[in-house]
Request: fold
Amino acid sequence: MKRKIMAAAVFLISAAVAGGCGNSGEERETDSRGMAKEDAPSTEDRDLYGFESPVRVKAGVVYAGDFEWVGKESLTDNSWMDLYKEHNIYPEIMYNVDTSQADSKLSSAIISGNYPDIFQTSTLNYMNYVNEGVLADITEAYETYASDELKEYLMSDGGEALDMLTVNGRLYGLPRLGNPYEEYSMMFIRQDWLDHLGLKVPETTEELKRTAHAFTYDDPDGNGVDDTCGLVLDGVELFTDTIGNGDPIFNAFGAYFGSDGMAMVENQEGEVVWGGSYVEGMKAALSFLQELYADGSLCKDFLTMDGDAIFEAAGSGRCGIWFGPRWAGMVPAIDAARKDTNAHIVAAPIPTAPNQARGKAYLPPSILEVHCISSQCERPETLIKMMNLSVQKICNPQNTEEFLKYSGDGTNYSGWKASLLRLQPVNRGYDDWKAESYALKTGKTERLTYSQIDDVDSMTSYLHAVEEDRFDPWDQKQARGISFYTVYGDPQCAWVTIDNMMKANAFVKSAYSSLPSREVTKTAGILKNLTVESIIKIITGDAVEEWDTLLENWYALGGQHAVDEVKVLNKS
Reply:
């Protein structure tokens, strides 16, 4: 079943501008921006949002497991498609795959030479594609066509992301920015199960172990059936930026990997080290997970569970504890309530392990993905203009109607996740939490933005329905309310957890100050696979001492070069 709250559709698009962004089959004289000289508009007469003549856009669509079109909208007929057509941009579907196939599909397309012109990629692949000549240089296109609103959005992190994406003084992509504090993985847990068993939210790894055991064997849902497990992890990726991330368990013991397995951090002596090199902490974490797996408190089939499977397990009431970003409780909250209206999902900090002052979470980088345009495209400004549209409609709506049309209303419009170049204001989450939680407590909504009014209205609908004993999780507005309550409204919501962690300075930041080199990006995937494979083998029975062997192999296969590179970059 397709879902509809977080992380939604990712669109990989290929632009063919007025006769083609790919190879047109004819030689045309171009200016320094790669655009045909006879078509180049003057600076005074430039269109920041579209074209005078039609632009054909081939789209390869990738859906996340939680996305669902609402109302009468569809892949080819929705508010965003209408907007693009208004500006002479006409999308056509190139391919449609599941998120699990997205990277391989794009990679195969690039190898074949028939690949999207505009697409999204990770920072690691970005460097590979720059070095391989896949991406267009958009330096001049950005300077000429970027709107003031786009520039403001891209400077919301002080320009750090743009600096990171600048290679030898040239820009090849635009970042989709995220607030790192919103993207770190916290713990989500079934509060109603804790209440039923007389337990509290676990604050230490020992308490987590006891709670996971109780959730597995003590019938936490009270249905008299042995059908629950305690903790679930994504055994396919293990380290991920979505639901089921296993990194927080290692964070609790002082080890760090990040979603790519390549986290570089500073140790107590201030030296740059790989986050998995803390042998004592790693072995303690591995022993901890070994015990959970042997006990059955870590779901036995976690080895084959990806993010979609974890959404299903959490939402169906099968598991009671998982880790993920601030949105990782939203979809499960709806699904769990539809099975049991007493379901209550709350957020909490990562637990603290023995001999650790406090569990510190790894803070991911601010770049969620990179929007790029192919070097085959004659008009690289296409990327800039589409980004201008996204920023204008999502970050700067002119009125309530425009906000609902492009950010979504859950009834008629699918929202910002249906846009071809997705983004959201970097600091909106914190502002929304402060404003919306205050409004829920006081009933004062006068100073709320369009989106905040919409969120509060949904959460109020849910809360009033519960108070009046008429809660219906199948009601669309109430369902939306319960999902947003896990992020902004609950006394134990995600943003309360983020705020408490920020106040305690309970984060470890990456030591990377720029993107890794070509050599590092080539070996990163190999090193992550090696690391995950070794960890899984140890969790399921191999000796914990095998981590020593992993470290030797990791450094020999390119890890030492990666560490040395970060040390040099940080000194320069």
Notes: Confidence is low (pLDDT under 50) at residues 1-20, 22-44. The longest strand covers residues 89-98. Residues 435 and 448 are 7 Å apart (CA to CA).
